[in-house]
Amino acid sequence: MGYIKSAALEETGYVVLDSYGKEIDPKEWLDLEYVDWKSSGDTRFAPLASAKGEIECNGFWNHKPPRTDKDGVWIDAQTAIAPTLTERALEPGANVGRCRIIELQPNSYADCLYNLHQDDNNRLNPDGTGWVVRGFFNLTDDKDSFFVLRENRTDPQGEVRIALPAGAQLIIDTQRLWHAATHLGSEPRYCLITSWESGAELDAYIEKYNGVPHADNVEVAQDVLEAGQVEQARRDAARAAYYAAKGQQEKLAMSEA
Predict the structure, then answer these.
(1) What's the pLDDT tens digit per position in 61-73?
(2) In the 8-state DSSP scheme, what is residue 127?
(3) Which listed residue, of 144, 191, 193, 233, carries a Cα 20 to 30 Å from 162's Cα?
(4) pTM for the full model?
(5) For residue range 160-200, what is the model confidence (pLDDT) as tens digits?
(6) Which of 87, 107, 99 is nearest to 136 (CA)?
(7) Is the pLDDT of residue 130 over 70?
(8) What is the torsion angle, in degrees rounded to the nearest 10, for the CA atoms of residue 153, residue 155, residue 157 and residue 159?
(9) Rounded to 10 degrees, what is the CA torsion of 223, 225, 229, 234?
(10) CATH number of the domain at 9-220, please?
(11) What is the 3-state secondary structure (H, E, C) of the chain?
(12) Distance (Å, rounded) from C-alpha 104 to C-alpha 191?
């Protein structure tokens, strides 16, 4: 039967929406309660919706009963602080699973390449239902930072680098694409990440905000690109050697974040 997927994401695995032009009070993300949850860098997360309405970030399948990343339970103490962000997550009318703000500390392009990962969005997702993708709404004005997308984690061919000013809005099939952010600022980057179920509601939302499956690539100096690729390979080799020394198979598992 297969899953219900958005045709808009079929070509490249992502769409860029119109930028959000309204002001949001930074207190909506700065005053939230965060948990120390690592994903593709030095990160913390502030959940707005979780498996049981608790301030935690675990995959829904790690709870009892286990289930897929849908039907998230909103956390009243958090949504009261972040009403605009909650509204933004609910706006498409699509089923919401996990919804949270990520706080990412500054890193380098090489760090980003090493941290490229795919998300485990659709574990236990029943065949014939909507495929879970993720929306990214950049909150801070990170003009020198960019999102990196690859079809193959270690192959730079076709790499996409999307700018991350305040208001940037992306929807990505993060189970298909390897992804991470290069954050070159001096302060943390904040971004709202929402798991949405694909279907007619999400399709209408993509159309409303003129989603396009291509973006102008952020220009990066060739020597930085090459050095990042070399450093990714070096760190990968060191990780493989670490696991080999422990008699374990190296894992490049999907991230639960």
Answers:
(1) 999 999 999 999 9
(2) T
(3) 233
(4) 0.95
(5) 999 999 999 999 999 999 999 999 989 999 999 999 999 99
(6) 99
(7) yes
(8) 30
(9) 50
(10) 2.60.120.330
(11) CCCECCHHHCCCCEEEECCCCCCCCCHHHHCCCCECCCCCCCEEEEEEEECCCCCCCCCHHHCCCCCCCCCCEECHHHHCCCHHHHHHHHCCCCCEEEEEEEEECCCCHHHHHHCCECECCCCCCCCCCECEEEEEEECCCEEEEEEEEECCCCCCCCCEEEEECCCCEEEECCCCCEEEEECCCCCCEEEEEEEEECCHHHHHHHHHCCCECCCCCCCCCHHHHHHHHHHHHHHHHHHHHHHHHCCCCCCCCCECC
(12) 9
Judge whether 81 and 30 are in contact, CB under 8 Å.
no
Q: Name the token pair of 49.
A: 């919706």
Assigned token pair, 111: 């760090």
State the pairing for strand pair 189-197/142-150.
unpaired
Beta bridge partners of 4: 130
Please tell me the predicted confidence (pLDDT) of residue 250. Answer: 60
Average of pLDDT values for 93-103? 98
Q: What residues have CB less than 8 Å from 221, skipping those under 6 apart? A: none
CB 180 within 8 A of CB 115: yes
pLDDT (tens digit per residue) in 133-149: 999 999 999 999 999 99
* Percent of the chain's residues with pLDDT above 90: 89
CA atoms within 13 A on the CB side of 57: 21
- Greatest pairwise CA separation for the chain in angstroms: 53
Cα distance between residue 257 and residue 116, in whole Å: 12
Task: Determine contact, residues 207/145, Cβ cutoff 8 Å.
Answer: no
For 146, what's the count of Cα atoms within 13 Å in the CB-facing half-sphere?
A: 17
Query: What element of type H or E holds 110?
Result: helix 109-114
